[in-house]
């Protein structure tokens, strides 16, 4: 069964930290990617069942926008069933670092 991917982009590090924390605490998802997008914008991606990813993204958006030190959510998206060629090109696959935390 394919796993959905949910990605949130934030302005500032405190917002992405709060976003990632809220996402993994709110739903049964695995954090698969975190990185700097550009000019103090950060991206965090999670994988899991579609319903769990939707719940995680909602919680991440709320947490990222609640930051009082200027952080905010810039954009987000959910892909319910990414094809294998997308997984092979984009950094949304499970790695050796994320595999031990994979939620089944």
From TrEMBL:
Pfam families: BMC. One of its GO terms (molecular function) is structural constituent of carboxysome shell. InterPro entries: Bact_microcomp_CS, BMC_dom, BMC_shell, CcmK, CcmK-like_sf, CcmK/CsoS1_BMC. It is found in: Carboxysome. GO terms for biological process: carbon fixation; photosynthesis. Residues 4-91 form the BMC domain. Keywords: Bacterial microcompartment, Carbon dioxide fixation, Carboxysome, Photosynthesis. One of its GO terms (cellular component) is carboxysome. Homohexamer. Interacts with CcmN and CcmO in the carboxysome. One of the shell proteins of the carboxysome, a polyhedral inclusion where RuBisCO (ribulose bisphosphate carboxylase, rbcL-rbcS) is sequestered. Assembles into hexamers which make sheets that form the facets of the polyhedral carboxysome. The hexamer central pore probably regulates metabolite flux. The tight homohexamer forms a small pore which is positively charged. This is Carboxysome shell protein CcmK.
